[in-house]
Design goal:
Number of strands of chain A: 12
Largest sheet of chain A: 6 strands, mixed
Largest interface: A-B, 27 and 25 residues
Low-confidence stretches of chain A: none
Largest sheet of chain B: 7 strands, mixed
Structural class of chain B: mainly beta
Distance between the termini of chain A: 41 Å
Mean pLDDT of chain B: 92
Order of helices and strands of chain A: EEEEEEEEEEEE
Number of helices of chain B: 0
Radius of gyration of chain A: 13 Å
Helix content of chain B: under 10%
Oligomer: heterodimer
Chain lengths: 113, 116
């Protein structure tokens, strides 16, 4: 079974600084997709960034980028120039060619002004 | 486009009662998903629909749970004979369904269920 582990229940970062959130996953598949979702206090999950496992190039979306290490089954999220609005729960998720998206337990990010 | 809408936002019920939640997906999204999220955990997949057809159900979905999407638009999730362990956030998400594996899911704000 595929599992997703986020080892950092909480993280904090100073505004304008950079923070990295960790995620590891377990799978025997070679073709799959990885995601980071953000859940602010409003509770609505929002897609931050996604990565296809067959792509070697790390995905980037503005201030958000990932470090995808397929062999190590690691998928960390880097947030640059952190903003107050980045404060939220961040969930790493794994999905293969089916419809069952598996989420990690989440990391609560606090941004200090 | 008002996004995915879920009602009610909060529901408090007594153990043994039945509850029903509603999800209105983004129009023209043919896929609709239900997830459950307990405190301190990520969402867990419950079931999903392709148009009106329920194509997959998690083993988490006991026989007390039933979901419908009768006309391929809105969906309802009913829990019969609620138990305290059913207390959770129930999230709905929708998507176009054109690229199932890497597609973006659009989530609603969830229905928070508390069973007393």
């Amino acid at each position: 079974a595929q599992t997703v582990t986020q080892s950092q229940p909480e993280m904090s970062v100073q505004e304008a600084e950079t923070v990295t959130l960790s995620c590891t996953y377990d799978t025997s598949e070679s073709d799959y997709y990885l995601f980071w979702y953000k859940q602010p206090p409003s509770r609505q999950m929002i897609l931050v960034i996604r990565q296809e496992a067959y792509k070697q190039q790390n995905a980037t979306e503005n201030r958000f980028s990932v470090n995808f290490q397929k062999a190590a089954k690691s998928f960390s999220l880097k947030i640059s120039d952190s903003q107050l609005g980045d404060a939220a729960m961040y969930f790493c998720a794994y999905r293969r060619n089916n419809n069952d998206m598996r989420f990690g337990a989440g990391t609560r990010l606090t941004v200090k002004p | 486009d008002t996004g995915v809408s879920q009602n009610p936002r909060h529901k408090i019920t007594k153990r043994g009662q039945n509850v029903t939640f509603r999800c209105d997906p983004i129009s023209e999204h043919n896929r609709l998903y239900w997830y459950r999220q307990t405190l301190g955990q990520g969402p867990e997949f419950l079931t999903y629909f392709q148009n009106e057809a329920q194509l997959e159900k998690s083993r988490l979905l006991s026989d007390r749970f039933s979901a419908e999407r009768p006309k391929g638009s809105f969906s309802t999730l009913e829990i019969q004979r609620t138990e305290q362990g059913d207390s959770a956030m129930y999230l709905c998400a929708s998507s176009h369904g054109q690229a199932p594996a890497n597609e973006k899911l659009f989530f609603g704000s969830g229905t928070q269920l508390s069973v007393l």
